[in-house]
């Protein structure tokens, strides 16, 4: 098992240099009704169901370095050509490389909504990170909880810790008045009610929760079979 905070630091050494960060693709997608997407390289988790492949497991060999200015230019160009009103970073963990992300957000045209898709680990580990995000009203954070409790988190990710950082991220976002919602991956339905009760105790009962849809791409299916976890996802 691994520590996602340690893995964050190791991954940042690979995918971030000065203000540059690695990306492997820029594309229009149909998610959220249409959104310009930059797919970044590197993550601090190793989720069994992850679809990203090389961008997570082979960060050294994947992608090229881009400045915040280059990323913004590509996102704006895609959005303008497609008539989109939303932008996002996907494919990896966008919060790795804090300075790069904050610089990117400063450069974005405020007419666009920016959806920050994150596992929330670094936002929960470093409360100043959320404070920095709170100055950007166009940012909406989508925090994907990898399980409904710490035990399920470790089963799904292989990490020895991290679930509490995810919950702290929700708390910090709420306290800083940053717009956010929760996406949930849960393979044990009986655990959901306990999670909902905990969110209620955190005064987060009104936060929108969506079920994260897991697509069984061939590599995802193979990985889940090797981990003897495919049966959890085939029933979804």
Structure explained in plain terms:
The chain contains eleven helices and nine strands. The chain is of the alpha/beta class and 236 residues long. Strands 1, 2, 3, 4, 5, 6, 7, 8 and 9 form a nine-stranded mixed beta sheet that branches. Strand 8 (179-185), helix 9 (192-201) and strand 9 form a beta-alpha-beta unit. Helix 3 (68-82) crosses helix 4 (98-107).
Short account of what is shown:
The protein is an alpha/beta fold and 236 residues long.
What proportion of the residues form beta strands (DSSP E)? Answer: 15-25%
List SSEs in N-to-C order: HEEEHEHEHEHHEHHEHEHH
Oligomeric description of these chains: single chain
DSSP strand count:
9
Major sheet = 9 strands, mixed
Which helices and strands occur, and which strands form pairs?
Blueprint: H1 4-15, E1 16-17, E2 20-29, E3 35-40, H2 54-57, E4 64-66, H3 68-82, E5 86-90, H4 98-107, E6 113-118, H5 121-125, H6 127-133, E7 139-146, H7 150-157, H8 163-175, E8 179-185, H9 192-201, E9 209-211, H10 218-226, H11 230-234
Parallel strand pairs: 3-5, 5-6, 6-7, 7-8, 8-9
Antiparallel strand pairs: 1-2, 2-3, 2-4
Helix pairs in contact: 3-4
Key terms:
236 residues, alpha/beta, 42% helix, nine-stranded mixed beta sheet
